[in-house]
Amino acid sequence: MAGLVETSLDGHVALLRLNRPEARNALSPEMMEELASELERLDPDPDVRCVVIAGSDQVFAAGADIKSMSERSFAEALRHPAASFWRRVAAIKTPLIAAVSGYALGGGCELALACDMIVADAEARFGQPEITLGIIPGGGGTQRLARVLGKQLAMEYVLTGRRFDAEMARKMGLVNKVVKKGKWLQEAMELAHTVAERPPIATRLAKQAVIGAEETALSAGLENERRLYELAMATEDRVEGMKAFLEKREPKFEGR
Ligand code: DAK
Question: How far apart are CA 241 and CA 136, in angstroms?
Answer without folding.
Answer: 47
